Amino acid sequence: MSEGKSIRWIVIASMLFVAYLGWGFMAGSYAGSANADGVVIGRRGTAGLTLMASAIYSFIATSVMQLPAFFQVISWHFSHRIWLPILIVLAEIGIAVGGVGLKRLEENLSKPPKRRR
Length: 117
Description:
- By secondary structure, the chain is mostly helical.
- It has one domain.
- It has four helices and no strands.
- The protein has helices at about 5-35, 50-65, 70-80, 85-110.
- Helix 1 crosses helix 2 (about 50-65) and helix 1 packs across helix 3 (about 70-80).
- The two termini are about 30 Å apart.
């Protein structure tokens, strides 16, 4: 494939994005349940875009603020909410398997077609 992003690049970027989303969900869950002081609440508005921007800000700020408590967040989820780390790992595996399948498809499509007799 001569133009565009490679499949490997797309798979790695997707896996990093899912890993960040997973960390953000776990950090927010931990901060909301373990200590309410760790949740960042932005300015709330009545408009849809303001509310969405506030939610995105809260998600990013909480995920960054909980980085020093990385091991506490992970251990708390393995003790209380094991389903969330399992779901994140399954999503990562799904992306990796999909990437392998796409790579095989790309190789098969790049070969010249076989002639039938």
